[in-house]
Amino acid sequence: MNNYMQAMILDKPKLPLKWQQIVIPEIKDNEVLIKVTACGVCRTDLHIRDAELKNPKLPLILGHEIVGVIEKTGSKIKELQKGEKVGIPWLAETCKTCAYCICNKENLCDQAIFTGYTKDGGYASHIIAHADYCFSLDKLNKKFNDQELAPLLCAGLIGWRAYKFTHDAKTIGIYGFGAAAHIITQIAKFQNKEIYAFTKTNDIEKQNFAKSLGAIWAGNSNQSPPIPLDAAIIFAPDGDLIPQALRSIKKGGILVLAGIHMSDIPSFPYDILWNEKQICSVANLTRADGKEFFTLLETCPLQTHIKTYNLKDANQALNDLKEGSFQGAAILVPNDDN
User: Fold this and answer.
1) Contact 308/331 with Cβ under 8 angstroms?
2) How many Å apart are CA 137 and CA 13, to the nearest integer?
């Protein structure tokens, strides 16, 4: 292995990523060096590139849906081995000592570090990660290839955390049918839940896609579902959807906001929130979420729908995601000749 890696680098928000070759940093005792085999392109990456999420590390390598193989381990690493397949998620590191970390809410840690945001991510041939925050993926080798695994590291994990917030809901609305929604719909069907999918107006292609994955109804986001729903999840970063979603859920229902960024929420009449309806947001993930989620996937029949791009085409992948020009998830694949 040489001492160089290739990466697509964001020098400044609102500018295209640049292809560069850089020196691989030395790993610390608690870190691993991973050769990236696939990295998902997440809407959060768009929010960072477009300056909707503030104060990223700059220059920055985006990407936090990372699958790869360990090439080198730090001196203190015992559980992970060279050659092992691992996933690297959004949550890169926490302090482990604050009140949030101690009470199993490490996703809220004030000192948290985030992959592809405050720490370099996976739009690269290699990445260095804290070993405690990597997920072993070897048990899923027979069910998914590396490209199919990549979207599970954020779309899957954050979708799973949002889905859990609906608790025992039987009927669930999903607003915004992208990478996370297409994963959670399949899980919900496996668990005998009913999904009602809401898309942009007259996006018949996405509505048919949702139905093909098990949604029992799909329509426009400004439509009312055929029945009142127990809960709803908003994946789309559109605050205008909140009043509409509140009108769609039953008394005592819950509305889960799953995005890290959302446009401003408009004012709405109190009567659509009354009757003990709840609104909650989902922030980040915990390692416990990951262990639970990946254990479920050992038995849950799930297929991730992907579109692959060469790592050098990261700008095109981001633009295609913004335009909604594909179904499922976009995946960057580094080639050995990159």
Assistant:
1) yes
2) 33
Residue 190 lies in a domain: yes
**Token output for 156:** 């899957």
Tell me the C-alpha distance between 191 and 197, whole Å.
Answer: 17
- Give the pLDDT confidence of 181-237 residue by residue, as tens digits: 999 999 999 999 999 999 999 999 999 999 999 999 999 999 999 999 999 999 999
Q: How far apart are CA 175 and CA 9, in angstroms?
A: 32
Single out the residue of 144, 188, 190 nearest to residue 166, CA to CA: 188
Q: Under a CB-based contact definition with an 8 Å cutoff, are residues 38 and 309 in contact?
A: no
CATH assignment of the domain containing 226? 3.40.50.720
CA-CA distance, 88 to 150, in Å (whole number)?
Answer: 9
Residue 42 belongs to some domain of the structure: yes
In terms of residue numbers, what domain contains 215? Answer: 157-281
User: Do 317 and 309 form a contact (C-beta atoms < 8 A)?
Assistant: yes
Do 117 and 33 belong together in one domain? yes
Residue 328 sits in the same domain as residue 207? no
| Distance in Å from the first CA to the final CA of the chain | 14
Judge contact between 174 and 233, C-beta under 8 A: yes
Q: Which pLDDT tens digit goes with each residue over 188-202?
A: 999 999 999 999 999
CATH of the domain at 94: 3.90.180.10
Say if residues 302 and 186 touch (Cβ distance below 8 Å).
yes
Q: Is residue 338 part of a domain?
A: no
Omega before residue 59 within 30° of 0, cis: yes
